[in-house]
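Review box. Two proteins, two foldings.
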Amino acid sequence: MKYLVDISVEPIGTNSTSLSRFVKIVYEVLKAKGIKFYPAPSMTTLEIDDITQLGYIIKDIDDALSKEGVKRIVTMMKIDDRRDKENSIEHKLEVIKT
């Protein structure tokens, strides 16, 4: 069973309106952890096998941003826990193409 988790990570107090530098840091953390993800303009969808991973993923993201000087981070999440059918990023993208 896969969980799809939409996250939006907002670093606060960065002295800039641009966030691309921080988005890249988040993506590097996800890549290093081997997390499958799909970027979108305002949120990123993660595909994970075990929901208990989520806390560790968020902690690693926060730690990486903190190392870059971010003092406050707001993270918003939406969890899709579908148990009756396949739940994957590919499946969702394929369904909307047809």
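Next protein.
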Amino acid sequence: MNPPPRPTMLLIAAAASSFLLSMIQSIPVPVLPQIAQQLGVDATTAGWVTTATLLAASACTPLLGRLGHVYGIKPVFIAALVITLIGSVITATVHDIGWLIAGRILQGASMGLFPLSISLLRHELPADRLTGSMAVVASTLGVGGGVALVAAGLLAQGDGDYRRAFGVSVLVSLIALALACTLPRRAGGGGRVDWLGAAVLSAGLISLLLPISQGHSWGWTSPRVLGLFAVAAAILAGFIILERRSAAPLVSVELLRHRPVLITNLAAMAVGFAMFAGQLATSYLVQIPRETAGFGFSASVLETSIVFLLPGAAVSIVAGPLAGRLVNRIGPRLVLVAACVTAALSSLSLALAHDGKAEVIIAFVLLSCGIAMAYAAMPALLISHVDPHDTSIANSINSIMRTIGGTIGSALVITILAVPTQAAFRISYVMSAIVYAVGAALVLIFIRSASRTSRTADELVTSRT
């Protein structure tokens, strides 16, 4: 007989893991120049420090979700954290680009922690605490990224060793692993793992994300980029055919086709696209030397993190839980629409007014609020339309769609800002605003009401047994 789960400890463990994965995703960004300089490699090679984690995450996230359902969440959760810890130790100790990239590949396992956390909360928490807890966990995705930028800026400022920044991930990995050991152990749902489907999906996603992330350096019309896009299309089409014929598919095609799930995934892609585009554009904007360009704030990397980006991350700590209360009051659909509209207006404000520090900081804080609200609403919207046993894989696919959107958004902004004129920044922000608005419209028009309502406390108890 398992002891009853402690809701507060569950929430802390899930929030710590989400904080860790967002920190791992963001922490290399400020130190990429030091990595290139200290390891004697060019900027393109150093860029693989971020690309490697992205590709590994796309490959392992859906597989971890399925493994969690089959074998139980706790052992898979701990295994993902152990792999992440090993990768973190490597990145914090080696001084070789090959080993550094290898460590970052192992850290990609952390990206599966968020969908596993949401599944854990759904199966273990009473219904009256579920929405608010999911909102808190989701909001830490934004907080971890902001803290990572500040920590990396402080630890590697000047000529500091880039490995100091990666050392932070070792500490947080250890804390998250210790907390994960307190999680309740429940048997999985059984069944088998579709290893072939996982391999095919991984190959398709890597073939898609690789040219998107490298297109600005390889050339968008180069044979390598176009060829990989063609390969990705063929592999992903083959994956759908394979899953239709599988008795135990990795991802149910019917689940993906279910309209609320499909629209939520498209909204996640829009949020990821516009979020990364807006954050990247703002980081570039504030560092532009005003003396030569006539705009920008000549901010250092450290000033960019603390003065311009950290306030938005701090506000996300409050915005996420408040969004959870709104979800309980008006439902996740309207909260997600409001989040996208808020972010769209903030992006438009940055496009039209970015001459003063205050207006940029305020607009970015509102943008961060919109993103935190969207993160809080999407898991709640998904679980109101999927059965408990599909929670982890549904959120895994949603995370991948957000990653794909973010990769596209980042690549486009890098391409647009290759010549960093004021018009280029305006185009980037207007593009973000339009994509947010499209996400809001999709949810508002095509999701009417929950076809499968969220479980009551009694129904959740029944589903666990």
